[in-house]
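Q: Sequence in, structure out?
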Amino acid sequence: MAKEKKGNLKPVINGIDQIIIKLNDQWLIRSGIAFIPIFGIPVNEFLSSRANKLTLQRWEILFQEMAEKVSKLDEVKINKDFLKTEEFYDLLLKAMDGAAKTRHKEKIKIYTHILVSAAIEPDNSNQDPELYLTILTELLPIELRVIKDLYELQKDKPLSGEKITEWERSHSWKKLSESTNIEEFTLRMILQRLERTGLVTQLIGYVDTMDSEGHFIISDLLKDLISFLNKPDLME
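A: Exactly. Output:
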């Protein structure tokens, strides 16, 4: 199959640039910012110059990564009809918005991975790429690191006949304190936030330990997300 050319993104970037210019030219926003004491002038200068440059640089990373991933795929595996749907349009906007708001390349690469993966199996009812993007764009890099390490620690299911409470003790989140070099108190706070996203859940009902310690384990949602990101077609 013919390979996608990398780096040939000038038309796309130029189009995006025009969108940003139009947004920046909205007089209501710009004039309102100008009246902010002390901060108004530097914020306006940022929006009219550096913000454009940073946003374009981050979008370029997004589209370069997309070109690289697509070039490695068998074209017949891509659902081209899906690329014309509102669902894909919403995903693209969400990915672009998320990319514009982070300086971390790894996060941008994950957004691209979800976009391309959604086009491979868009009709799988068990997968929800829009939900995955929504959750991941809200996570900090340190939270992504913790959730990745927790998954690696707990991805193996309990053995047949093994109680989930016994399995959890041997796969405790506290083991991450050493591997991540994060203090246990801070790690617990991170996991509590991840629990609110649905990527982590807690076992309850312990009688021999304090429930306040937290018994965090990976959720089915996280397992689905990891499965979605690890599609064989994208891992070749």
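The two ends are 15 Å apart (CA to CA).
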